[in-house]
Design a protein that fits this description.
Its cofactor is pyridoxal 5'-phosphate. The chain is an alpha/beta fold. It is built from 14 helices and 12 strands. The strands form 2 sheets. It has a 7-stranded mixed beta sheet with strand order 2-8-7-6-5-3-4, sandwiched between helices. A 5-stranded mixed beta sheet has the order 1-11-12-10-9, with helices on one face. Strand 11 (417-423) and strand 12 (426-432) form a beta hairpin. Helix 8 (206-215) packs parallel to helix 9.
C-alpha cells in the first residue's frame, strides 16, 4: 500500500509536497514543449500522442511519480491553454493561480456538501460566501440567497424549475440569442418549448417582447441575457423588467458571462436593472477566473428555494435537523457535491472588490483595443464595438467558408484558438478576451495571424 498514501490528515501535506513538485514540473515541461496556445497537428496528432499512455490499466501500476509525470505532461502538452493570450475562443477562463491552489485544499479535505457531518466548515463557508455574493446581485433585497451550481446550464435549469414550482406549467420566453441551455432545461423539465423573440440586433427588443407577452397566456418566465455567449451583448434590462412587470411575467437574467462586471466600479452601470430579476445566473468560471466549476444561481428571496427541500434519512433526518445540524440537501439537486466555494472564498478575500474589478476592467480594455486594431486594418471588418470582452470580426468580403477555414487553419497549426459566431446572417471570427495579462503585442498578433491565414 506504500504507493497509495492519503492526502488528508497531519501527514497528508508531507506526502503531497513531492507529488506536487512532480505535477508542477510536468505542467511546465508540457507547456514548454507545446510552445503555443494549443498543440499543432489537429485531433489525430493529439490523439496519437495521448494513445501513448496505453495500457490504461496495466496489470502492475507504474507508481505515482511516473503516472503523474506521464499524464500531467500529456495533458499540458496537448492543452488548449487559456493562460496563453492567443487562446481566446470561448468563455474558457485562465484560472488564477491562487484559486487553483485553493482547489488543492478542497480536494485534499474532500468535504461533500450534501450533509453537515461531511462538511462542517465548508458548509458554513458556503453559507457565508453565497450570502455575500447574493447581496452583490440583489443589494436591496431583504434576504437574497444563492445556490452553488456547476455553471450557467445548471443555474438556468434551476431557474426554470423554481418558476415551474411557483406557477405550475410556465411558458419560458427567450430571445433568439439566448443560451441553448434554456431549450434543454424546458425539455428536461417537461415544460413547453421556449417561445423565441427575434433579436435582430443581437439583444432582446422590448417592443417585440411586449408583443409576445401580450399574445401569450401566462404564467410566463422571461429569460434575458447579460452577456450573450456569441457577442457579449447585454439585453436592455430596465426596459425588459418594465415589460415583465406590466405583464405579470417573472424575470430571470442569465448573467453567466456578464455578472462579474458587478465588481467593476467603472462598468457596473452596464448591469443596471439586474436586481429587478427574480433569479440571476452568474458564472465565476468565465469572468471570475475560477477553475470550473464555479456557478451560482442568485435568488432575490431565499424563500423561493424552499421547494428544493428534500429529506434522506442518512443525510438530514428530521431529528438531526431539529437538534441543530444544518440541512444542506435542499441547496442543490446533486447529492455528493464538491466544495467549489472554497476557491471562490480565497479569490474574493485575496483580491477584494477592487482587485477583481481591475481584472474585469483590464479585459474590457483589451477588447476595446482589439476592436480598434480591427478597425485600423483595411482587410478586416468589425461587427460592432464590444460591450463586454468579445470582439467579432472577419476578413472583408470573405465568404463564410473562408472565415471557417481561417479558424480551422489556426487551430491545426497550433497558432491561435479563435471562436466562431453567426451574426447579421454571416459567420464571424470571435475573440473572447478573458486573459487580463494579455499585452497589446498579443492583440496585434491575433490580427497578423488572421490576415496571414485567410485563404484568397
Ligand atoms: C456559458 C454560458 C452558459 C452556460 O454556462 P456553463 O457554465 O457552461 O454551464 C449559459 N448562459 C450564458 C449566457 C453563457 O455564456
Amino acid at each position: 500500500m506504500r504507493a497509495a498514501p492519503l492526502a488528508g490528515g497531519v501527514s497528508g501535506p508531507d506526502v503531497l509536497r513531492p507529488l506536487l513538485d512532480t505535477v508542477l514540473a510536468a505542467l511546465r515541461a508540457g507547456a514548454e514543449d507545446r510552445g503555443g496556445p494549443l498543440p499543432g497537428g489537429g485531433p489525430a496528432a493529439v490523439a496519437a500522442r495521448v494513445n501513448g499512455l496505453r495500457p490504461v490499466l496495466p496489470e502492475h501500476g507504474t507508481g505515482p511519480d511516473e503516472a503523474l509525470r506521464a499524464v500531467a505532461y500529456a495533458l499540458a502538452a496537448g492543452a488548449a491553454d487559456p493562460a496563453h493570450p492567443l487562446c481566446a475562443a470561448h468563455l474558457h477562463t485562465p484560472p488564477l493561480a491562487l484559486a487553483v491552489a485553493a482547489d488543492l485544499a478542497a480536494s485534499a479535505l474532500n468535504p461533500s456538501m450534501d450533509s453537515w457531518d461531511q462538511a462542517p466548515a465548508a458548509s458554513a463557508l458556503e453559507t457565508l460566501v453565497t450570502a455575500a455574493l447574493a447581496t452583490e446581485v440583489f443589494p436591496t433585497a431583504p434576504r437574497p440567497d444563492a445556490l452553488v451550481t456547476t455553471g450557467g446550464t445548471e443555474s438556468n435549469q434551476l431557474a426554470l424549475l423554481l418558476a415551474r414550482e411557483r406557477h405550475g406549467t410556465v411558458q419560458t420566453v427567450v430571445g433568439t440569442h439566448a443560451h441553448h441551455s434554456f431549450h434543454r432545461a424546458a425539455w428536461l423539465l417537461g415544460l413547453p418549448r421556449p417561445v423565441t423573440v427575434p433579436a435582430p440586433r443581437g439583444t432582446l427588443d422590448p417592443a417585440a417582447l411586449d408583443e409576445t407577452l401580450t399574445a401569450l397566456p401566462g404564467p410566463l418566465l422571461v429569460a434575458a441575457t447579460a452577456g450573450t455567449t456569441d457577442a457579449g451583448l447585454i439585453d436592455p434590462l430596465p426596459a425588459i423588467a418594465d415589460r415583465c412587470a406590466a405583464h405579470g411575467a417573472d424575470l430571470h437574467v442569465d448573467a453567466a458571462y456578464g455578472g462579474p462586471v458587478l465588481f467593476s466600479d467603472t462598468h457596473r452601470p452596464l448591469l443596471t436593472g439586474l436586481d429587478r430579476a427574480r433569479t440571476v445566473t452568474v458564472d465565476l468560471h468565465k469572468l471570475g477566473w475560477q477553475p470550473a466549476a464555479a456557478g451560482l444561481l442568485a435568488v432575490r428571496g431565499a424563500t423561493d428555494l424552499a421547494v428544493l427541500g428534500h429529506t434522506a434519512d442518512y443525510l438530514n433526518a428530521d431529528d438531526d435537523t431539529d437538534a441543530g445540524l444544518p440541512d444542506l440537501l435542499g441547496r442543490s439537486l446533486r447529492t455528493t457535491r464538491r466544495p467549489d466555494v472554497v476557491k471562490t472564498a480565497v479569490t474574493l478575500r485575496a483580491l477584494g472588490r477592487t482587485g477583481l474589478g481591475a481584472l474585469v476592467d483590464a479585459c474590457m480594455a483589451h477588447a476595446r483595443h482589439l476592436a480598434d486594431l480591427v478597425e485600423k486594418t483595411p482587410a478586416l471588418e468589425l461587427y460592432a464595438p464590444p460591450t463586454l470582452t468579445t470582439v467579432l470580426f472577419r476578413p472583408y468580403g470573405a465568404p463564410d467558408t473562408a472565415v471557417a477555414e481561417t479558424r480551422r487553419t489556426l487551430l491545426a497549426e497550433g497558432r491561435a484558438v479563435l471562436g466562431r459566431a453567426t451574426a447579421d446572417g454571416r459567420l464571424w471570427l470571435k475573440a473572447t478576451l478573458l486573459n487580463p495579462h494579455a499585452t497589446p503585442g498579443d492583440l496585434e498578433e491575433i490580427i497578423t495571424l488572421v490576415e496571414g491565414s485567410t485563404p484568397r
